[in-house]
Please model this.
Amino acid sequence: MSLSSHNGASFRSTIGGGQEDQSRFEALIRRAQKGDSSAFGDLYEAYLTPIFRFILLRVKNKADAEELTQITFLKAWNGMRGYTHQGRPFTSWLYTIARNTVIDHWKKKKEAHIESNEEYFYELRDHVATPHEASETRERDAALRGMMDSLSPDQQEIITLKFINDLSNKEIAEITGKTEDAIRQLQFRALKILREKLKHTDAL
Amino acid sequence: MNPHRPNRIAPHDPELEEFTGVIDALKKNAAHIEPRKELLSEILSKIGDTATAAQSKTSLPWIRVAMALPLGVGAVVVILAFLLFPPKSNVGSPLAPTSFPAATQESPAALEPGTVATTKLEPTTPRSDTSSFSAPALAPQVPEANIRVTAPQPNEEVSLPLVIRGEARVFESVFAYRLRDADGSILFEGHAMANAPDTGQFGPFEISVTYLEPSGTSGILEVFSRSAKDGSEINRVAIPVRFKK
Model:
């Protein structure tokens, strides 16, 4: 599989949602654990966009998000041998690394909590070529920012993991250390806030 | 989106049906977030040999070679070191206190009195060299420590690959490790899981890691866990090490 192609699109298309694909995905993880470097590359490719989205929505700054994404994957590379002996699901393990990397970043840079007014999610895709598409992307960026800003940091994290990263409550519990009940409650409160907010906008 | 399980949440969870509009809006508005397409090759380049940085497509086979070389060299060095200097002579050699000032300075949190546990040794294998390390903040022994590291020993001379051995009694058996050099630069970081038989019991671990080239001769290895409550670093064990040149 080509590594630099289409932001992982080729890999995502080969790993779909079916049972067979899930098995192939797990086989890939086993190969990576045994030190198969091409399997590592495929895993990075598959996880790069979701991990980047998660980190960007946490730190709200593109440059920091790129750096922290790099750190996350380098940590994963270094930890993979240790991971071989674990029974923990790979997805939760990788997101936990990403989450801890973000927490460390916040500790080092407390001012990161002071958000700027710059656009922070906005990232043009390669194929966004026309002014119309660019403008639409900016609108979505602003809408997402508006939605996230109305939530507490805890709610933002749960909502991101659940609906943008499509993780299960069980996986989110493994990653955040919260109980599934607590996650469900945070999720419902956040969804109610967002629904109220969207009633007053044209975002829907 | 999670690549291997796309769109599995909203349509299948009846509890969330009333929020379908909100969830769709979230997904739609986040769909444009993509990393720069160069980011993947940048990460792979950093993992592999920097010499092959520009060749992202062909760099992967080189990653294995790049990682295998230092591992192989490290193994030979370790074997030679064992042949030339039996473990006994290493244990007896004290390290001058001045050989570790920078790491102390750069890692104040790791060396706060009372927060740091040195290696918890087995009672049957007492060692004399722990007393030779004179960093004031390293508490001599913390019997109730939840993480115990038996290798490397304080002030041990380490080389590639660095084997970290010990046992841990921590939340979900997950612990983290980090090596810094004298400049405070992180040479590696990672997470692993101790093989604990049950909750609340110690589980052994053994990790073998490679690290980046240190800038000085001394460093500090930290093994710790994270608070399930707030993610802060707890149960930290800090072990000063010397890098084999």
About this structure: DSSP finds five helices and eight strands in chain B. The helical segments of chain B are 20-30, 38-47, 59-84, 87-92, 101-106.
